[in-house]
Every structure is written in C-alpha cells, then in structure tokens.
Amino acid sequence: MVNERRLGIFVKESRQKFEEFLGQMVEVPSISMDSSRAGDMRRMAELARQYLVGMNAEVQVVETGGYPIVSGGWMAGPEYPTVTIYNHLDVQPAQEPEWKQDPFVFRNDRGMYHGRGATDDKGPALTAMFGARYAIEQGWPINIRFLWELEEEIGSPHFAAGLKDRTAVEQGWPINIRFLWELEEEIGSPHFAAGLKDRTAVSRPDSVVVSDTIWIAKGRPAVPYGLRGLLSARLILRTGENDAHSGVTGGAARNPVAELMEVANACVDARTGRVKIPGFYNDVVEPSTAEIKSFLKSGFDVGRFKKAYGFRSLRVQNPADVMRRIWASPTFEIHGLSGGYHGQGVKTVVPGYAELKISMRLVPGQVPEKVFALLKKHVAKVNPDVKVEKEGMLHPFKGSFEGPYVDCVKRAVQAGFGKAPAFVREGGSIGAVVTMQKAWKVPILFIGLSLPEHGYHAPNEYYDWGQASGGMKTFAQYFSELAKMGRA
Amino acid sequence: MVNERRLGIFVKESRQKFEEFLGQMVEVPSISMDSSRAGDMRRMAELARQYLVGMNAEVQVVETGGYPIVSGGWMAGPEYPTVTIYNHLDVQPAQEPEWKQDPFVFRNDRGMYHGRGATDDKGPALTAMFGARYAIEQGWPINIRFLWELEEEIGSPHFAAGLKDRTAVEQGWPINIRFLWELEEEIGSPHFAAGLKDRTAVSRPDSVVVSDTIWIAKGRPAVPYGLRGLLSARLILRTGENDAHSGVTGGAARNPVAELMEVANACVDARTGRVKIPGFYNDVVEPSTAEIKSFLKSGFDVGRFKKAYGFRSLRVQNPADVMRRIWASPTFEIHGLSGGYHGQGVKTVVPGYAELKISMRLVPGQVPEKVFALLKKHVAKVNPDVKVEKEGMLHPFKGSFEGPYVDCVKRAVQAGFGKAPAFVREGGSIGAVVTMQKAWKVPILFIGLSLPEHGYHAPNEYYDWGQASGGMKTFAQYFSELAKMGRA
C-alpha cells in the first residue's frame, strides 16, 4: 500500500518541519529527575499536544498524579486495528562536564541534531509522528471529521470529497494510530499505571510499538524482544551533623564515605561485576540456546561497541560474553557517591553524611520487590546504620521474537533501512512496557531508532537525519502492514 | 609589665575596630584551593598589609611563586628578642549545603562572628595583632621612627618625646614583634619555604608563636606541642571517555567508581580505621607514658567532643582511646569521590571517570615521602590502572612541653583566660611549622584560640569575642613575658 516514491517525497519535504519541531522539543529542558523543572515538564506536554492538534488529532493531556501523559491520535473506526506508539519526552540531567555545548540549545550540524533528549527519546517520538502523518495524509480519516466540523454551518460543500476520502481510508489505511507520550520514563514511570486507568483518554489498543531502543550499530538495525528490569536505591549513612576537620577529629570520627564503600564492596565485586548479595541470582532465567544463537547473528562487534561508548577496556573481551552481560545478565552498578568533597584538589574533611547511588538491572525471572528485600537484609547485616531508600522498581520484560507482528516489524525495518533487523534483548529498562503489558495484555513490539554513538544518557547526545528519515519510512510501512493484517 | 586595668580598657576599646577588621577579612573569599580565587587572594594580602601599615609597621608582601606571604612588624632594636607570630589568611572552601548563611557575608551576632575563616584563622590572626598593638602602644618603639619620618623636615618638634618613649621601650617592652601571614596553609603550604628564603623581608626570629589550634573545650585552654603530618592524594581511574547508560552497557562496562571503592577498602578498614597499607605503621613512634598522662590531665571529655563536632557515634568510646586516635595515631581518611552522579535521586550511568580524594595524617616517626611510596606500591598491586596523584605533604612535628618559653605561654594563657593550659598534641597539620623549624631552628610555641564548636573546616564556622578578648590579653602578656626574658 505504500507508494515508495510518494513516501520518499513526503520524507524529504518533512525534513524542515521535523528539524523545527525537534529543535523546539530539545530546548525544553524536561528533566523529570529535577524537581525544579516542573514548569518545563508542563511546557513539554503542551508542546507535544500542539503538534498532534496541528495534525488534526484528538489529544488529551492526561493527569496522573505526577507529570502528565500526552495521549492522542486518529480513529478511522473501531473495526480497524488500533496501534499505540509509546515514546517518552522527559530527559536525563545534563550536568556532565564533557558537554561541548549548552545541552538545551539545539544545534543542527548538517543533519546531526545535538542536544539532550535528541535521541532519547524526542527524536524517535517525532520520527514516529511523521511516519503517522504520512499514513494519515494518505488515508486521512480524520479529515472527514475535520471538514464536518468546519463546514457544517456553511452547507458542507466538501462532504462528497470527504466520502471519497472515506473510500481511500477503507482501501488504503484502515488503521487507528495513537500516540502515548510519557514524561516520567527517566524516573521509572511512577505514575504511568495511574495514567493508563483513564480508559477514555488512553484506550486499549490491539498492539503497541515502543520506540526507545538502540541498534547494534549504524546499518545494523536491532529489534529487542526483552528488557532488563531495574531496581534503584540510595544507601544513606549519617554519622555527624556536619563535615568535620580530619586533623582535629580523624581517627576517632567515623567516616560514612568509607563505610558506604565497604557496603558497596560487600554487594558487588568491582572488577568482575559479580553480585555478592546472597540469593541475588536464585531466580535468574538464563537465555536459551536459540536466543544466544540469535545474539550471535546480530552482527554485534566488541570493537565497535567499545568505540561507540568510548570504553578503554571491558570486563570481558569475547562478543558472546559481552552480549550476555549487557542483555541477559543482572548487574549491580554504583553510579556515584554524594557527601564529602567533590571539588578541585583534596579537602580534608571527615564527612558527616554520605549517600551511595546504586541500581541493579534485573533479568527475566527476577522480581524487583524480592531483590529489594535481599538488598535490605544484606546491607543491614554489613552495616546496620545504613538506611536503604528505594528509588524505583521496574520489572524485566520478555516478549516474543516470532509471530505476525514480528513479521510486520521485520518487513517495515527492511523497507525503511534496506536491511532486516537482528532480534536481541535490550539491556535497558522501560518501566512503561511492563505496565502496558499488565494493563492491556496485547503484543508489544520495539522499533528503536537510536545508534550507540548517539549517546543515550551521555554528554553530547545527538540524533541524525539518516535514522529519522529511515525511521519515518519504517513507521509508514509498519502502519501499512498492520492495516493489511487487519484486526486479529 | 602589663597593667591589667589599662589592658582591660584597651581590649574593650578595641572591640569595634576588631569586629570591623574581621568583617572585612571574612568577606574576602580567600579560598586557596579554588584557582578561580586568585584575585581574592591578592585582595586578602593587600588588606592585611594595610592593617599593619595602619599600625605603623613596616610590611612587605613577599612573593613566593604561589600566593604571597605578608611579613611585617616593629623593630625596637636587634638587641631585643624577636618573636614571629604565624597565622594564615587563606580559608577552606564553603560549599557545604548545611551553611545557614552566605559563608562570605560576615554576621556579628552579639559577639559571635559568623563566616568562613572567622576562626580558621582570620580571627586569631587579628587577635594576635591587637595584642601586639597594645604592646606597641605601650612601648611604641616604631613611633620614634614614625615621628622622625614625619617631622624631620619641620625641625623634629617631638624628638624629645620620642626619646622619652625610647626609655619606655627599654623599660617596658624591649621586644621586636613580627607577623607572618601565609595564604597557602589550606593547600599544604607549597611555597612557604620559598618565601622564607627572602631573609630581608622574613628575618629569622628568636622564637615563633603559631596561632592556629583548638582548645579542648570552652574554658579548657590547650597548648599543643606536636602536630600530625599530612599526605593527601587523589586516586584517579578513567575507564571510558564519557558516562554511559547502565542499561545499555552495564555488566560489560567497567565501573571506575566501584573499582576505586575496592581500592579504598584495600587501604583502610572503614569501621576500625586500621590502615591496611603494608609497612604503614612501621615508623610510628608511640606517645610516651608522660604524654599519655598529660593527655589524661587535659580535661578532654568524650561527650563534649561529640557534641562540639556533631558526631552521633565514634569508633571508640574511651577518652584515652579517643585522644590517642586524634592526637597521636596516624589515619587514612576518604574525603569524597568525584565522578558519576551526585545530584538528586539516582542517575543510572556507568561513570567513565572517578577520583577518590584521600589523605593520611602522619605522626612523629613517619616520613610522608616514604608513606607515599608505600601507598603507590599498594595501589598498583590492588589495581594497576589507578593513578595516584600526590596533592600535598606535611611532615609531622614534635616540640617540647617544658622550658622557659613554655613557661611564658603558661603564664600568658593564665593571665588571659584565668586558667592554665593543658599540654596536648594537635591532630591537625600546619605545614609551615616544620618549614620554620628547618629554616630557623628556634623554639616554636602554640597559642591557639579556637573552640571545637567554632567549626574548623565545617559549615557555619564562627569565632567569638570571648576568645578574642582573652586572646588579646594572652598575647599582650606573652609579649611582656618574652621581653622580660630577654634574648637567650
């Protein structure tokens, strides 16, 4: 149903608008982790709403108790399949000293789109939206209503044309497309489930596409069918009201930084990454032989992986070991330690307070609630003065890499990028996925568009026109494939 | 020679000027550790110079290759004893979130002088200066020169008066008083030795008083006769160019924060403080029985110590153990860890870089250079990728707690505060002390004026009029005692 030439022209003609929209989005610092950004979060939701309204979609900003969800789309008719595209519009903080520019000033360097959130996940969100725009412009179901609304009082002069479009819809794009844009993904989606309870604004689709994952490499599309879960926490120790002078008090004073480091070392072997919390590995379901085979066919290359993320060395060298570790094994990571002195040089204080920032990636079989209990128990044994504060919990996810929807994804990616995708797992966590799975019990597919070098969660994040243009084509093709498949 | 009533009036009348000067000094953020403060460091030196010039002292701002030294005073004659009072005018950073006010806005709360540097060491520096001012105003040797300089061209109408003062000098205060104010104490005095090489500007005295130490408690004056040394360093590990996404790379990526924590744990037992670096304790000279006895007589109280520094608990409870640990045992302290994420919540990055800020307090017998070699060797064994960067080195110091100078100090403190001082060691390190000892080979005494609750190196630092007024009297008395003693 997709006319390749027409789609090519559409994509080319969309570039200016796409870049304008992405620039506007990047320049809203929608850092969900930073409570001082509440105003920017609202601005972000409003901007997203306007884009959809501008495309004649019906849109709602759904209140959740936290930051809202933006939900909207076009209904051709309940008899047609409905697909919901999930993206998130909140971003990571951008305080890293390595930034070469203001992270919230958009810079378009000949098709390289620089700025925090460009690839995670504003660029892919807009890419999917432009893919839908093509589908809508071809089938244009909403236009019928649009013409009615604006011309009824003047005698509906285009009603006949509308009917003609109706035919086009039925023959061309009998599909309902909806977007679901979250603003709390980077903080573990604490209010997403509450948002989904508004069944009017956020109706249950027949399938979901999540567009927030990363390829193996440029030219190596990857479609994950599983995600790791996440359990993040802060380990807190206060031993004094203030920082004290290490000459005047050192030796007798406890050092909470040192004590938390002892706890850290009791939780994880720093060099191998082996987690030392008793019972941690008990429920881990190892990847199957078929999965490992699929990993090995993915074209994953250790050298390219190291280069993309700027690693000087890795814990393991063998590609199979690396893939298993990043996609299918749980981790215990230490992200930083606050308290004491972090500035230039050395300030000789005995800190009064320290806070260890940790998280664990969990794999299928592991239950975050259960792992949290194991962590608490272990920390209490190592150092009973340390408080364990839960930050976020995301269950791991495992979908399928076979079936009709997967076939649609394969054909869409092939059409968009000229290459079939590899089926792998994703090492990251998207809390909303498990929530949608629980709420709707429908197939969830992944069409990610980011490249490793784009810098997810890293300084100097960017997105690029190559991924955006191929992505628009992929999404247009995917909508066409779903329309062809009809309702299951 | 001190007229108690006259001194009392002088002190009372000096209060306003003292508070004005201290306010000016505190409001110059002379943070030697912060390279962006170079301009403030110069302002601080100039302000100090002006105070001494205003008291008709001859003053020089001595270039050292780093921040300058301010050296100045009044010479009554080479036949009289010369005493040099050492203080430092640089301060610690003040970025702690616990500050209840702008640390560089002076706040005088009815004789409580709030602001960074108030007690460490600007307040004591000014206190000593006002003590000297009294001595000078009584004996006024410099006035003679001053009158000569200003009245020679008009026929020296006060020459006779000058001669009369000269008599006063000889009878009253035959002493040369000099101040030596450093601006690099908080960074380990890297250029102090170079400054002392200027023998014209910084001449060799017969004895030194260092005024930068802390009492046991309010009403419990303490005079230390020993200092711990210091060896500070940064342990650095870079494993990637950037922070990376812990979902996408975690498990395969090395974690430099975790690896440095492993190194930290291999260097020190976090709970007991026992240093694990092989050979670390080899050269430690344990305190003598006489010293331990002197410690026990000092009036040190564990509860008061905990309260003064805001500690919830200590590594040991017994007073003798606490005193031995803070005054006479070496330590390995971890001050903080930079790299990764320190903000609100948890940001799930795998850091590319981490830096551990550590220092060791060393005791008599230990040689910083030797201990640094032990540290480097040990770290290389634990993790060869970790770089060890030396920050500063200060040799420990041990003076005497007997002899004529010590007797002068005893009498001066008794006169100033109505109570004889305890003789203890100081757990902190003052690099300049060992440098002066090597350069001049003269007795070095300590008359400190700070209280534990004043918050050395801590947020909400302050100084108070009680210590300042008693301190002025103590210094005035001490100058009188030295004058009486004459040249050895």
Q: Give the radius of gyration of chain A.
A: 24 Å
Tell me the quaternary state: homodimer
Give the total of beta strands of chain A: 18
Largest sheet of chain A: 6 strands, mixed
Count helical runs of chain A. 15
Through-space gap between termini of chain A: 19 Å
Fraction of helical residues of chain A? 25-40%
The greatest inter-chain interface is formed by: A-B, 98 and 98 residues
Coarse structural class of chain A:
alpha+beta
- Give the amount of beta strand of chain A, in percent: 15-25%
Strand order of the biggest β-sheet of chain A: 1-2-6-3-7-17
Envelope shape of chain A: globular
Let me know the average pLDDT of chain A. Answer: 92
Low-confidence spans of chain A: 140-149, 165-170
Brief digest:
With about 500 residues, chain A is an alpha+beta fold.
Characterize the structure shown.
Two copies of one chain form a homodimer. Chain A is of the alpha+beta class. In chain A, 40% of the residues lie in helices and 19% in strands. The first copy, chain A, has 15 helices and 18 strands. Chain A has helices at 4-26, 38-54, 118-139, 141-151, 159-172, 192-196, 246-249, 256-267, 289-296, 302-309, 319-328, 368-382, 404-417, 431-440, 465-485, and strands spanning 58-62, 69-74, 82-88, 107-109, 112-114, 176-182, 207-210, 222-227, 229-238, 244-245, 331-338, 349-350, 353-362, 387-394, 397-398, 422-426, 444-446, 462-464. In chain A, the strands form five sheets. The first copy, chain A, has a six-stranded mixed β-sheet, sandwiched between helices. In chain A, strand 1 and strand 2 form a beta hairpin. Mean pLDDT of chain A is 92; it is low at 140-149 and 165-170. At the A-B interface, strand 9, strand 10, helix 7, helix 8 and helix 11 of A face strand 9, strand 10, helix 7, helix 8 and helix 11 of B.
